[in-house]
């Protein structure tokens, strides 16, 4: 094969690669436009999410507690806290209050994405995005929301049964979403895919310690041992006389 033939072959291969790359870029651009730039509104009702939010937080404490597991006073205090610290902010169509209501309603009722998107009139991607945004904001407030007990005293009515007790500690299972190859590790004794969460609270029903991340198959004793032997802030504090 002489140089001229080799150059022609190389030119054809190069042109073929360019055509294929251009075609792939055009397909990707068209798909992106359909998904993100030319989206039709999920619901025809304008401001449906804002109206639903007002129905939940603007009526009474009974409604608020029933739907988002929080009083109106506590809710607005939380909204002011995350807004003041810059953790959350109003977007063009979704206020901080609506973002919090979406998150609290989801975790309070273990609601599915498809159920919440229908209730608030947003797409599944929008619901998921704001849920994760609020979750990150709440995690940043852990130093203020989780407080160690201020004393080791307990109410007198419990003194007879729980002398020198400062609170209670227990484990609970919450649903977990993991890859198929991890199902065996996260399957609990009831056959569900879950995490085993260790939590401690005082006599005022305030959480003083939470340890998450353990597989559902892990025993409570193993998790407690891990909490006791951790280092730094992740270690559970055991008062000693």
Plain-language structure description:
Strands 1-2-3 form a three-stranded antiparallel sheet, covered by helices on one side. The longest helix has 35 residues, at 3-37. The protein has helices spanning 3-37, 48-57, 61-68, 72-84, 96-109, 113-120, 124-140, 142-145, 156-159, 183-186, 220-229; strands at 168-175, 194-201, 207-215. The protein starts with a helix and ends in a 12-residue tail after the last helix. The chain is extended. It is mostly helical and 241 residues long. The chain folds into two domains: 48-144; 156-234, no CATH class. Helix 2 (48-57) packs across helix 5 and helix 6 crosses helix 7.
End-to-end distance: 91 Å
Total helices: the number is 11
Query: Which term fits the overall shape?
Result: extended
How many domains, in number, for the residues?
Answer: 2
Portion of residues in beta strands equals 5-15%
Structural class: mainly alpha
Radius of gyration: 26 Å
Mean pLDDT: 83
Helix content: 40-55%
Question: How would a textbook summarize the main sheet?
Answer: 3 strands, antiparallel
Low-pLDDT parts are none
Strand order of the largest sheet: 1-2-3
Write down how many β-strands occur, each being a DSSP E stretch of 2 or more residues.
Answer: 3
Helices and strands, in N-to-C order? HHHHHHHHHEHEEH
């Amino acid at each position: 094969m002489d140089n001229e033939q080799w150059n022609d072959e190389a030119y054809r291969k190069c042109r073929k690669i360019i055509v294929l790359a251009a075609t792939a870029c055009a397909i990707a651009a068209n798909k992106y436009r359909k998904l993100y730039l030319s989206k039709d509104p999920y619901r025809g009702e304008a401001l449906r999410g804002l109206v639903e939010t007002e129905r939940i937080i603007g009526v009474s404490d009974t409604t608020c507690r029933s739907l988002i597991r929080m009083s109106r006073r506590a809710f607005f205090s939380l909204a002011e806290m995350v807004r003041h610290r810059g953790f959350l902010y109003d977007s063009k169509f979704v206020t901080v209050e609506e973002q919090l209501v979406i998150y609290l309603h989801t975790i309070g009722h273990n609601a599915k994405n498809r159920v919440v998107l229908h209730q608030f009139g947003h797409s599944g991607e929008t619901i998921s995005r704001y849920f994760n945004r609020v979750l990150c904001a709440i995690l940043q407030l852990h130093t203020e929301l989780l407080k160690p007990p201020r004393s080791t005293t307990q109410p007198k009515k419990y003194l007879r049964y729980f002398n020198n007790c400062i609170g209670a500690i227990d484990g609970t299972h919450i649903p977990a979403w993991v890859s198929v190859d991890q199902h065996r590790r996260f399957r609990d004794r009831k056959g569900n895919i879950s995490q085993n969460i260790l939590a401690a609270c005082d006599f005022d029903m305030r959480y003083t310690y939470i340890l998450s991340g353990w597989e559902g198959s892990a025993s409570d004793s193993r998790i407690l041992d891990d909490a006791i032997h951790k280092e730094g802030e992740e270690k559970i504090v055991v008062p000693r006389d």
